Sequence to fold (656 residues):
Amino acid sequence: MKPAWRILLGKELLDVARDRRTLVLTVLLPVLLYPGILLLMGAIVAAGTQRLKNEPLVVAVVGQATAELLARKPVPEKTTFQAQARAEAERLLRDQQIAALVEAPQNAAAELEAGRQVVVTILYTKRFDRSVEALDRLRPVLESINTDALELRLEARQLEPGFVQPVKADAVDLEFQKDLGPLIASRLLPIVLLMMLILGALYPAVDLTAGEKERGTLETLLVSGARPVDVMAAKYLTVSAVAVVTALANLAAMAATFGFGLSFGGKATTTFQLSGGQMLTMLACLVPAALLLAGVSLTVASTARTFKEGQSLMSPLMLVCLAPALLSQMPGVELNNLTALIPLLNVALLIKASVLGNATLTQVVLTMGSVLLFALIALKVAAKAFNSEVFRFGGTEGWRALFGESKSAARQSKHR
Amino acid sequence: MIEVENIVRDFGAFRAVDGVSFTVEPGEVVGLLGPNGAGKTTTLRVLAGLLRPASGVTRIGGVDVQVEPLQARRQLGFLTASTGLYDRLTGREMLQTFGRLQRLDEQTLSSRIAALSEELELNAFLDKRCGSLSSGQKQRVNIARAVVHDPSAYVLDEPTATLDPLASRDILELVQRAKARHKAVLFSTHRMEEAEYLCDRLLFMRGGQIVARGTSTELLTLSGKQKLTDAFLHFAGATA
Fold:
């Protein structure tokens, strides 16, 4: 004959599997929504970039000297140079009727001939994209004029091009030079996976505790042939299972999306294949994290009397749990033997390190050990909550009663 | 047999149950009456092991509820107006789950479900999800859930409170059948006609204590009233 917790676990899993809201949250959302959002985002960014490239822009040219200087090179595509006085050009720029203005000094040509520097002003604004695009079109023109002038000067003095820049820094990113996939994945995955793990734990935890209290089914369970600890064990495993499935569905959806490849327009493309080792590393931290979050969310949700009350308790809990994921993206915050001991932060950092290929076995073991230890503590508190009358009837005695009840119960037992 | 000996239960400084004692013999239906806040539900919850008493002893079939709660609950069928069903499970799945929790083997469980389906006329909707059932159908499934393990004692806390007369009839028939089968039935209600019709003895609670006990005739004599409703008001401290 099956133990009571297994009978209850079967019942809980059947119940959860028939819950449309849970299915939407755990399967549909990650499988459809997130890849959809990422692909759509990529398409929108690419389309926007292309639209700007094709947009006709008017650039004001202030003064004859500027016009002569710019005339040394072809006008950029889809761009019209328009002669304007400086004050009028600034007004037109502020009114967004032109995209930028260019102004060179009156004696620009003579200064160049004399071998001196000419400062050409490009007035633009970051307030609208067309102006930024105009800057992007003007820069190559001026750089080309600069290169021509420099070549003439070097030729006249019979110097090599390297003379003007004896040392040139050429920073080459070995991993990400062409593909932004791993970089973007290392930013997105820790936040998305932890967020979905938290969501996957919180909703069923509230439904299986406060929701059941409200529907009267918890009392039905507690007067059955099951001990509170059996009831708790079944709910704990159910919440953990839903959280893990949610995280895995998200991981699979993300992996498929990155594997398929995203394009953000221009040269920015992202492809990223998760290896078996990386998947295993992530599982090694996500499963213990699911156990930890299941214990914490069950404990907190069990003090609520209604589903609505449970949801309001979950909002601050979600923020607290999400903070480590956001912290993991801060500069200088990396996985080391110390951060590997901080629950949830270590999970986020391990996911990040795993994507970037930096995770060591020691860090994986430390992270797993730390999260499992905290999961055990959460489980113990959850078990205490389920033995508490505050949990059963949502009494008015609150958290103090929840954590102090054993002593008072023991005192009461002595009196009997 | 249900035995309650001098139980006391406090909620903070408030004493909800104060030295309540009574017994319910096999084949006997005892009604627990009293105004809201009298301590009836707390007494029944202590009896079901849902609340711990500060002092006193409760036994079901001779088993101490506080010492051996699982053994005691195997002899207890507990039904209240608020005990709910799982909307996403079918009636059959409910009965199977709760029967298994009461350690019934599969053969016994199948025959119990078949018998209860016949007795409570569940066959037409036993394989439908509980969420799609009418309140009367839900109540019948809930009755079957409470007694699927064929307990020796029934504790029913205002089970007809939210039901229409038709659904209430199922409960009253359950109590009558239980009595005929020598079950000990403790029945809490606010409906005096139900108490008068069903109960062999009545216990009247007020302020956490039993202030009157006896048959309905004895309570009428004791209160000097003609109707049980008037006797209720008399014992509740209101003028009839």
Notes: Residues 55-161 of chain A form a domain with the D-Maltodextrin-Binding Protein; domain 2 fold (CATH 3.40.190). Chain A touches chain B through 34 residues (CB under 8 Å). Chain A has two domains: 4-44+179-411, 55-161.
